[in-house]
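Revision sheet: structure tokens.
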Amino acid sequence: MKLKSVRVMTFNIRHGRGVDNEINLPRIARVIQDAGAEVVALNEVDRRTRRSGGVDQVEELANLLGMEYAFSPSIEYQGGQYGNAVLSRWPIEAAHVYKLPELGPEVRTLLYARIAWDGEPLHCFVTHLGLCDDEQRAQLRQIAKVLEATPGPKILAGDFNFDASLVDWLNELPATMRELWTLQQRERLFAHHNGLSGNTFPSRDPKKRIDYILASEELELAEPVLPVHTLASDHLPVVGTLARRM
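Predicted:
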């Protein structure tokens, strides 16, 4: 029986603006490349907005990294759009945008990308949840319906805007979806990483863990899930390696 693997990252890039207040997409690309990420969930991505100089940011990142991409606009902003995106080293066969329940000031979406992963589909979902409790839980319930209707290996990743003290809210999702940081801590999968906080925000002095990767039970955690320390954004990216037995 052989294994195939995928290295997954989630990264809220704050339209490429680092803690130095400079928008620097090559710096974001280096973080992704240095981490060896093969599928990347991105939040707060600009497409042709004035503040970002009219650049299509996910297209630029894809070109810098030699990857495929899909984009999910959530709002119209400064003459362009702002939303979520996926980067993939494998072909993206299809993409779809789901609008999530809107109980706050900003439209939130779920981006779906079907990735041709070495002979079978890998279903990748990216979201950036709202800011209030009721909104977040309603959005999770809607995401759960989409996940339940999608058979096969699945990843859900993004900025959920609630910290680890509320991680039980993820029980709104199907039981087959495991939050990877919690899984590795509970199962003591990588003992030398136990006791770390996993905090991702703010990047200069992380106090909260609000960026998550979940994977369905078809996928095993092959290498530790860890934040990547960088000042390229106000969030730290999170990266881990998943494997599937064939």
